[in-house]
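Researcher: We plan to redesign the surface later, but first we want a full-length starting point. Tokens attached.
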């Protein structure tokens, strides 16, 4: 399901014809942002391998970065530390031990040697939906979660009595997705939402 289809079903479920389109979009975006803080499945993660060149200074943070899961150099995990310590160590080349985020980069100290491989595993931001045809893995397999979360936001705004219903559906959808991922992670099975979303609970 794409972004436009989600907005359409959300509007039909809410049944508030005077709601401005911008509010529909804001509630959907808030729903996705809430979901991505709670979802812990492989599809929500990014994995990058960066070859260290002779001019390496720092590691640029990916554009879709949300949170760090792990940072490794040549297969060995590097621990987070403070800016002063890492900046001092990063002036020399050696076996990397620490890292710190500074702006849009990760500094690593000591600096990894040329031809080392940096591996960053991170949670991805997947809320960047703009055009009606836009989609991502969550819109494809968890559109019901997005709609339920958007309905929670709308029900709070309108003091709608369906708030608890959609809150429960949002929480259950997240739990089902995470539980399914826990079972399927080793087999690389395709994830899908584990329940059906009801659109006709209230007139």
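Model: Full-length starting sequence:
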């Amino acid at each position: 399901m794409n972004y436009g289809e989600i907005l359409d079903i959300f509007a039909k479920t809410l049944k508030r014809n005077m709601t401005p389109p911008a509010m529909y979009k804001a509630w959907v975006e808030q729903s996705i942002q809430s979901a991505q803080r709670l979802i812990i499945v492989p599809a929500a993660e990014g994995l990058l391998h960066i070859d260290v060149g002779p001019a390496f200074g720092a590691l640029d943070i990916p554009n879709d970065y949300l949170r760090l899961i792990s940072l490794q150099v040549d297969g060995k995990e590097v621990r987070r530390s403070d800016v002063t310590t890492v900046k001092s160590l990063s002036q020399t080349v050696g076996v990397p031990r620490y890292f710190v985020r500074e702006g849009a980069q990760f500094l690593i100290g000591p600096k990894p040697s040329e031809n080392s491989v940096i591996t960053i595993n991170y949670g991805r931001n997947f809320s960047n939906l703009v055009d009606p045809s836009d989609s991502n893995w969550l819109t494809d397999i968890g559109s019901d979660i997005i709609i339920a979360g958007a309905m929670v936001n709308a029900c709070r705004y309108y003091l709608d009595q369906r708030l608890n219903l959609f809150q429960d559906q949002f929480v259950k959808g997240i739990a089902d997705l995470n539980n399914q991922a826990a079972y399927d992670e080793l087999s690389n099975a395709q994830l899908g939402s584990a329940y059906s979303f009801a659109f006709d609970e209230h007139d």
